[in-house]
Predict the 3D structure of the following.
Amino acid sequence: MKKIALIGSGGSGKSTLARKLGGKLDIEVYHLDALFWKPNWILASKEEQITVQTEVVSKEEWIIDGNYNGTIDIRLNAADTIIFVDINRMICMYRVCKRMIQYLGESRPDMTVGNNERFDINFLKWVWNYPKTKKPAMLKKFDQLPKDKQVIILKSPREVQRFLDALV
């Protein structure tokens, strides 16, 4: 595990897992939210996203946390390990709401400074609908990957913790 792509719904714990993995494996972590969102919630163009990701995946080691389906193939093709954090949507919704309250009016640690947390009904809808609208396509993509790719699916906070505990 030297090139790791973390994917999953908002609130699934991707960023936390990425930080913990980075610490355990001594690999630099890249949060796509921080790389792609410019201050005042301006999203980088797709060309900028491609350029940034191409640069990151050319490195010897990396952990990339984020979805961004329009450029996901860059990460999946370059990764040796894909971790899909497939946590129940009720847990994800709880975590997202808690995060919105905790950081309301402030920037989260995994977000660009100047992008203060806010109540975002569209994001909540995206999280709620993720199991039906995004997950099936992700699973299909994983099935189409070459067999030398390690795909790890973690389905509960307990599985995430067991996975971390098992790392040397």
